[in-house]
Amino acid sequence: MKLRVENLVFAYEDFRLEVGPLVFPDARVTSVVGPNGAGKSTFLKCVASVLPAPAKTLFVDGRDLTLLRGRDRAKLVAYVPQEPSFTFNYAVLDFVLTGRAAFLPTFGAPSSHDIGLAEEALRYVGLDGHIRRSFLELSSGERRLVLIARALAQESDVLLLDEPTSFLDPRHEVETMALCRRLADGKGKTIVVTLHNLEMAAKYSDVMVFMKNGRVVASGPPRETLSEPLLRDVYNLDMRIVECAGQMFFAK
Amino acid sequence: MSGSANKSSGWLVWAAFALPVVLLVLSLNLGSYPIPLKAVWTTLTHGSAAGPAAAPSPYADILFRVRLPRLLLALFAGAALAVSGASLQALFQNPLVFEFSLGISYGAAFGAALSLVFLGRGFPPQLAAFAMAVLAVLLVVVIAGRSASGIVPILLSGIIVSALFQALLSLVEFMANPYALQALIFWLMGSLSQAAWGDLTLTLPVIGLGVVVLVLLRWRMNVLSLGDDEARALGVNVRREKALVIAVATLITAAATSVTGVINWVGLVIPHLVRMAVGADNRKVIPLSAAFGASLLIVADDIARSAASFEIPIGILTSVVGIPFFIVLLKRSGRVWR
Questions:
Q1: How far is residue A251's CA from residue A237's CA, in Å, rounded to a whole number?
Q2: N or C end: fewer C-beta atoms under 10 angstroms in chain A?
Q3: Domain spanning B3-332: CATH 2.60.120.1140
């Protein structure tokens, strides 16, 4: 399912986000990059309804997200935050099961079908051996994978991932981005991921969206879009693009 | 979840629910006039078949008019306070929140005192208690503002609101006549001695229904405890469901407080104890809190009326036992919350 953004505007204090028209293609990985404060996370939160978006600005396969009930929207779009801020230390399986909230009535509880889906999601991200462990016992990399597993249990076609690789070591960074790639290629998910690591974004994305001061300044396939003047404009920093073994690197 | 794990936790829940019932039956023989257990059983079975008035035993009056209503109140009030505490902790993502720290206890106490002193028995104290308890929670949420899920803002707001309602309660005490004042002070210390079927016919169904609603919402509380933003992204109608939990938790606390007076610490100690035993999953925490809260208050009432030649107010007892117990819990509970 493709995600379409039409003139999305969100403002708070002295910050103003203005995005669109912009299309996030179906079954592709799109990286949203830009400096701190560019509005990447704010944009994802608007799409996920964590922050309010004006009507007729967000569409998934033509359906207006802003007019849908919460549970119907959550069946289309799943949001993976950077780090959950919960207080109570749930077991991994119980945490992933919260991804089924949109499918259950207010007074309901997960059935064996829901538990099966949560276990399958954990198996997909390679954490099926950690079902009984508590979330806080896991490493940062494992926690990110649990968050992605919860989004998979939510069975939404659009996945929004907010900086899923921040604070991860290179191995977990690569594993997380490879998982995003597999989700798009293997499961047909539309992946929108905010990133700071340009090498990762260029390597694993089909489309890159560059943001600065709340606006999109460029978007397109990495090799067609990336240029040294664009990077200088977006980051206010001189960077050289170096190619090695078919991969792009950015020298600062 | 594996089948064996489900089976073992299922047995635990059933055993936990049997505990307060067993304690209630055993407690019926305790008091200044001991009644043998066999006589308790005979009186109960004959009495319940033919009605209290037709009970053939000389113990019937003590059992049906004094001990049974008192112990039923202990069972329901203990369940209400513990379930309310566990629910509010999940909702506010804050393990230190309970009815006292949100101002509910003193709000309800003020409402009930207002009703008892100025409105007389004609006006149900439960209604006044609920109205003031709701007002207390609203004040706490408004004062804490957008930081309502933060531990410090919510506790500070609760302290402010509790202090306000304590002051208002003092004003009622100041204006009450000496006889009403004496009764009010004893009631405020927490006591089950005033339990009468007249009060219980309104209070017990309210508490029972409220506890059932919160038990049915137990899994939803796992989702709500992740915070407003995440719960909303997961498709939950956060405003509506939070309002439902707060209203029901406040209602059952107010209903209990309006009859028992102020009984603190049950809503804090029991959910922590349960979390340490079974983990943070509210599917277990909420029902088990109901069972152990009920059991705790039955045992506390047994001690209150048996430990000395006079009756110790149960609110004092739960505080004296609860505070040091909670200090120990705090040092050991880091693995289930952070």
A1: 11
A2: C
A3: no
